[in-house]
């Protein structure tokens, strides 16, 4: 992630680490791919696969680190990550607080440009009680501003469901 364009030819090798046995390696690979913009786009589907990481070791959910890192990476990829926002939205219901917050931040980063898509993804998961992060996202979409919201085709009616 620190070497910018010089690292781009090696992103395939980084993406291969998304299947590593160790959750910290998978999380680090997600993080690295999140830092490489256009060059990492071909690997976003593999990053999105990490949203469902549920590795448990000795009763501890180690996959949570991978899920959170995948959310963060997808949050940095703008329009290219749009097909994966539904998977991110599902993590608003995750059992781990850090994963829920990472999903929230990732979706929040997409609101201005893709409010309608984020709203649809959030609405698709239904309620996310007790965290309320889905409701907060919908409220924020409604507050983006009339111009941006209407430009995205978003209707404020969803806030009152």
Tags for this model:
flat, 2% strand, 161 residues, 10 helices, two-stranded antiparallel sheet, mainly alpha, disordered C terminus
Structure overview:
With 161 residues, this protein is mainly alpha-helical. 57% of the residues lie in helices and 2% in strands. A two-stranded antiparallel sheet has the order 1-2. A hairpin with a 2-residue loop joins strand 1 and strand 2 (60-61). Helix 2 runs parallel beside helix 5 (63-75) and helix 8 (111-125) packs antiparallel against helix 9 (133-143). The longest helix is centred in the last third of the chain and has 15 residues, at 111-125. It is flat, with a radius of gyration of 16 Å. The protein starts with 10 loop residues before the first helix and ends in a 10-residue tail after the last helix. Mean pLDDT is 83; it is low at 145-161.
